[in-house]
Write a structure and sequence with these properties.
319 residues; alpha/beta; 6-stranded mixed sheet; 38% helix
Length: 319
């Protein structure tokens, strides 16, 4: 396998070699750096983002943390100000990181709907802000085609690093990454399978089944990317939170300290291996979006798991 800035590590499970495409080797990085770089470059090209002496431009983004943090890094030292709308389900670590940026203001929404999602309330708050600030520019990771285009480099890298890809497991948040995988596969006539991995409590693929306990994958409302992706993926896989906790602890014990969405794609792969429904004849590659330190207060906190009805899973893994 060839090396790159985003490494692939191989783990063996049940006799299968599995490629982990680790997009967040450091705690402040995620796979959304690719899409953010693409969108911010376009804003620079259009003359909206310039030096600090230029007229200020107000950017607005709805984000659980990673997307907004990547945008903040890329616009530091420019004329951009950023208003981020997030919610109380987002990891404390990500919210605090956003608040530390001097050009970022954060609104943390706490208005759950019946399913426990804050997505609708976040959208209302963002729309209200834009009406009150008509010159603001929204970076929309849920619908903007520029955002999805930013992930094309991810699939080029995977093919450079793994010459015999059999399947790619993609965690779905906005579903932009999955949409990019579909477009790449169609454009270049690839044969590998695409599996979109979702949370049980997510509304991206039908009604939620329970409450979503972890941020980073899944969504409280269906996105345009999800609607476009559904007919083209080879499997839309919902993963129980219990399996995510088990996968995260298993991976960490082997030196891979990864976030909730990374644990979810690994759990989905384990299920496919157990049910003998994983494509043969190549290497399955898992997109591992970010670092485990972003989830020390949730996924890796025994107290959090206990409060959310998952304490028995942490205990079982520990023993």
């Amino acid at each position: 396998m060839k090396t790159s800035a985003s490494p692939i590590k191989v783990v063996n499970y049940g006799g299968w070699n599995i490629g982990l495409k680790i997009e967040g080797p450091s705690p402040d990085q995620s796979h959304k750096s690719r899409a953010a770089a693409h969108v911010v470059a376009r804003l620079r090209w259009n003359g909206l983002i310039r030096g600090t002496v230029a007229s200020k431009v107000q950017l607005v983004v709805s984000s659980s943390g990673n997307a907004a943090n990547e945008i903040a890094k890329l616009t530091a030292g420019t004329n951009a100000k950023i208003r981020v709308f997030t919610d109380v389900l987002s990891a404390t670590e990500l919210i605090e990181r956003l608040k530390a940026w001097p050009h970022v203001a954060v609104s943390v929404i706490n208005e759950p709907d019946r399913s426990g999602s804050h997505a609708a309330a976040r959208k209302r708050a963002l729309d209200t802000y834009r009406k009150e600030n008509p010159g603001s520019v929204e970076i929309d990771q849920y619908h903007d085609s520029d955002w999805a285009c930013g992930y094309f480099s991810l699939f080029r890298e995977i093919e450079w690093q793994v010459p015999n890809v059999s399947a790619i497991f993609v965690p779905v948040g906005t579903a932009a990454t999955a949409m990019s995988a579909v477009r790449f596969k169609i454009l270049y006539q690839r044969r590998w399978k695409i599996f979109a991995v979702d949370a049980m409590g997510s509304a991206l693929h039908g009604a939620p089944i329970g409450t979503r306990r972890f941020s980073g994958y899944g969504n409280g409302a269906q996105t345009e990317w999800a609607r476009q992706t559904h007919p083209h993926v080879d499997g839309w896989l919902r993963v129980p939170d219990e399996a995510v906790v088990q996968a995260a602890r298993w991976l960490r014990a082997r030196g891979h300290y990864l976030g909730a969405s990374s644990a979810a794609v690994f759990a989905a792969t384990v299920h496919r291996i157990a049910s003998d429904t994983l494509p043969h004849g190549g290497v399955p590659v898992l997109i591992c979006s970010d670092h485990g330190r972003n989830y020390e207060s949730t996924l890796y906190s025994d107290n959090y798991l206990l409060r959310n009805g998952l304490g028995h899973v942490a205990e079982a893994v520990a023993t």
